[in-house]
Specification:
Blueprint lengths: L1 E4 L5 H11 L1 H8 L5 H14 L4 E6 L2 E7 L5 H7 L2 H14 L5 H21 L7 E4 L8 H15 L4 E6 L4 H9 L3 E8 L2 E9 L1
Antiparallel strand pairs: 1-2, 2-3, 3-4, 5-7, 6-7
Amino acid sequence: MLIRQVREDELDQVAEIFAEVFNESIHFYFSGKLPTRVISLWLLLAQMAEPEALQVAEEDRFIRGYIFSPSETSRLWRTALTGSFLTHSVKTLVHSNLRLPLSTLQALLSNKLWFWRTNRQHGSPARILSLGVSTCVRGQGYGRHLLKAGIEYLRNKGCRVVTLEVRPHNIPARRLYESLGFVKVGETRDAQGPWLIMQLSN
């Protein structure tokens, strides 16, 4: 297994894993399948904002999982507002014919405000923002290796506290986080339901 920085030509593969892992959320907000190119747009934003923070697990030339562990989430906002990314986003959304109902836009905006409040409350810009492993290799240690790589990356960046959120019912993920030292520090919720806020002190 090789943990390394993702290449831009691999973003669609990572997007497919994202769609597998977060299928429930995609259906909740978008009432169906979200085009891979739209998910890849978010991954491109992550890569542009902090390239070293978006890592993948590769084995037998296949991408098996990914982690995005930015040291400063504010970079995402700044990058999203750059001209080049905005232009690319508009083109992608137009070509995908994605239509978002007002209720979906309201829910997504509400979630962004929730995320902003959570960041302010817990004062930790370093985060495990997204972690996903392909369903065909679950339980084989990919998640643990990726999480360790994300933590190590943040430690090398000088981040003393790492924050993440996990759904209360996601017991396997909670056990993984707890086994590596994360502890519950609070609770919050978004349009889809409750979250547990966990932190690790490096």
